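Researcher: Let's try something more involved. This one mixes different molecule types, so please make sure each is placed in the same coordinate frame as the others.
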Amino acid sequence: MQSLLTARIWRGGSDGAFVTYEVPRQDSQTVLDVVTWVQRALDPTLAYRYACRVGMCGSCAMTVNGRARWTCRTHVERVAPHGILDIAPLANLPVIKDLTTDMADFFDKWTKAEGRFQGAATRRQDFARVAPDSRQRRAVDAAIECIGCGVCYASCDVVNWRPDFLGPAALNRAWTLVNDVRDIALRQRLRAVAGDAGCHSCHTQGSCTERCPKNLAPTSAIAGLKRVTAQAAMRRKL
Amino acid sequence: MKPPSPPWRSRNHPAYWAFVVHRLSGIALALFLPVHFWALGKALAGAGALQAFLTVTEAPLFRFGEWGLVVLLAAHLGGGLRLLLIEFGPWSGLRKDWIAIAAAGAVAAGLAFALALVR
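Model: All components are placed in one shared frame. Result:
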């Protein structure tokens, strides 16, 4: 007989509750496979979000057994050795329905952190040449691979304590631009991230770095912003 | 409605525990400081008043409290140095090696002080 897995899946909005489903256990089964099976075989009204299934798009992040994770890259075997899975929407974001959250605040904060590149060059100019081994390029490399899945944001206590905190992902993005030698909006960006809701609110709890599925270190990016904003303030350039 | 907060299980990692220890030791030390200054302030009323208070602090309960203070100070100092290294040094990551060093330093300071007390 095929073994079964107990999946407790969050249903409803913020005031919803866990509903238990029995799901057939498969080899190499991912948490996303479980959610998809429940929707296709048991309840087509289950709402959740995914696109690529291979860890590229960053849309399937959920809280799995108490931790924010990409469900597509999380094997059931690894997180639920006893066959019990708790699957909830990401924390720190308003729940729309079931496993989907409203990520508008999350992405608005990227804009608030001046997360948009602003260059001075036109298409008629030659490419900018940035030495791959320069200090700034290496700092960008260390932080650039973020795909905006929201795992760090959902794991951060500071976001929970002060909802206006820009959060690890937006600050990590700002740090890549602070180190982009082609960008011309440095001062504006430093101002955007130096306020009460910015980098200095971070308590270095490290949950973002600990939980990032891409093994990025937003804690380091935020520490970098703290240094650069402090230096700018001392030189009266903030 | 406020979004759900991160589950407690997601906080169980060394850097978060380092934060908790740093915060709790910081609050405890901040609460101790006014008492400390009040005690020192006794000297303003003369050597007798201070000496009378110092005699009270010879009690075992005060000794235990003193030991606790040393441990808290060592933990807060070690954790604080780690934070300064992360924020001002050329290092990246959570510096878990420094969490281990700070914890070991606090334990060593606690044991050394306990040894000095019982000798």
